[in-house]
From TrEMBL:
Keywords: Hydrolase, Protease, Signal, Thiol protease. This is C40 family peptidase. Residues 212-336 form the NlpC/P60 domain. The keyword Hydrolase applies. It holds the Pfam family SH3_16. It comes from Robertmurraya mangrovi.
């Protein structure tokens, strides 16, 4: 029987696609494994973490739903009295995409520990209560994905590069799924893909690869928030408390420090007042500096610090040689080399 002989070069052309996938095939591979265990993440732009589940004010109701508008909430608290009410009632906040561990459930509330906020209060992270509707289970392991870190005060997520989906705060971090010239596609806590403008972000291959800052880098980041009203327990661009401010600035630059001022004062390297450098943290305590630490600021140089003072005031730069700071000075710590 006659058999037609197929030239070798034709056989080769047929086989090549079997061993070398096309560009479209290759691009379908991703940095994440969707079959890995899920994590519990914050699924609102900023979640308030409360001391307990007791009744909240009417003004706080729009922060207790699935849709949280922090800009509206903070703008409505136009008086010092409204803001002071939060003292002792609000524990901290958590940003969109932050991981939490659920400790307890009580009706529509959950007690969580915010994992990236270190504290002696709980080994898993900073504890407090929040509405169950504000957390989400995200499937997959994204540790091999690049990280998008919001550098703007606020940035928008988009459904299709045109329709706005959500506004998030400075220092929000999300895994990157795809990069384009001016856009980045990220995976959000609800397991959906959204777009962000690259100009609003820093992109890192991992948290460990965030460039180590100089003291002036920390100071310059802090100065972008001058004039922002103080917010008890705040850790976002909608308002910071004193330690939330220093914690957030350091975390943005890849350095993890404790959440609260008293705990920040126990770590880092002790620095003499005569040896202060920009970026050092300054602590202030009751009983003329000998009692409990109650405040923290960041040294900017020339005998001044930047800090978030208290309810009714804004982030400001002041001399450390005036009252009450001169009398209450309790030492300084350095967290960078």
């Amino acid at each position: 029987m006659f058999r037609k002989i197929i030239p070798f070069y034709l056989v080769t052309l047929v086989l090549i696609p079997l061993f070398f996938p096309s560009v479209s095939q290759a691009s379908s591979s991703s940095c994440y494994n969707i079959n890995q265990n899920s994590k519990t993440l914050i699924n609102v732009p900023v979640a308030n973490i409360w001391k307990d589940t007791s009744a909240k004010r009417t003004i706080d109701q729009n922060t207790l739903t699935k849709v949280v508008d922090m800009k509206s909430w903070t703008s409505k608290m136009s008086t010092t009295e409204f803001r002071k009410w939060l003292v002792g009632k609000l524990e901290t906040q958590a940003l969109y995409g932050s991981e939490v561990k659920v400790l307890k459930t009580s009706g529509s509330w959950v007690q969580v520990a915010v994992k990236d906020q270190g504290t002696p209060k709980n080994k898993y992270g900073y504890p407090g209560w929040m509405p169950k509707s504000q957390i989400s289970k995200q499937k997959g392991d994204f540790t091999e994905c690049n990280i998008a870190s919001v550098k703007a005060k606020t940035a928008n997520l988009y459904d299709d590069k045109r329709k706005k989906f959500l506004e998030v705060s400075f220092n929000t971090r999300l895994p990157v799924i795809k990069e384009e010239k001016a856009w980045v596609q990220v995976m959000i806590p609800s397991n959906k893909r959204k777009w962000m403008k690259k100009k609003d972000l820093h992109l890192y291959s991992s948290l460990a690869n965030i460039p180590k800052p100089k003291g002036n880098d920390l100071v310059q980041t802090g100065k972008t928030f001058l004039g922002l009203p103080y917010l008890w327990a705040g850790i976002s661009a909608y308002g910071f408390d004193c330690s939330g401010f220093t914690y957030s600035i350091y975390q943005y630059h890849g350095i993890t420090i404790p959440r609260d001022a008293a705990d920040q004062a126990k770590q880092g390297k002790f620095v003499y007042k005569s040896k202060l450098k920009p970026g050092d943290l300054l602590f202030f305590a009751y009983e003329k500096g000998k009692g409990r630490v109650h405040h923290v600021g960041m040294y900017v140089g020339n005998g001044k610090m930047i800090h978030s003072p208290n309810s009714g005031k804004n982030i400001e730069m002041v001399s450390i040689h005036i009252s009450p700071f001169k009398e209450e000075y309790a030492g300084a710590r350095r967290y960078i080399k």
